[in-house]
Design goal:
The chain is mainly α. It has a domain of 25 residues. Helix content is 41%, strand content 0%. It is elongated. The two termini are 56 Å apart.
């Protein structure tokens, strides 16, 4: 056999093994059981409803639309501008 054919055979065998040909199909996939400690850590990391209150604000992506809406309802406009990379990587 030349190198090209043997390389292709090896590739096919590797792909067949990686997609599960010949794997036991009768077993259901394993589900990950999370511990109570994991649940506590998850609750500490995820934002609570009061920390997500900013999502209720009708933000405007355009300054012009914000100004027009503010003038209609006689409210002030808060403009947030930024110069540079958002992570400070400039």
């Amino acid at each position: 056999m030349n190198e090209f054919v043997s390389g292709n055979i090896a590739t096919v065998l590797l792909l067949a093994a990686s997609i599960g040909l010949g794997a036991d199909q009768d077993q259901p996939p394993q589900t990950l059981q999370l511990s109570a400690e994991h649940a506590k850590c998850r609750e500490l990391v995820l934002p609570n409803p009061s920390e997500q209150s900013y999502r209720k604000i009708p933000w405007r992506a355009s300054v012009l639309h914000g100004i027009v809406d503010a003038q209609k309802s006689d409210k002030p406009v808060m403009i947030v501008l930024m110069n540079g990379h958002p992570l400070g990587c400039t």
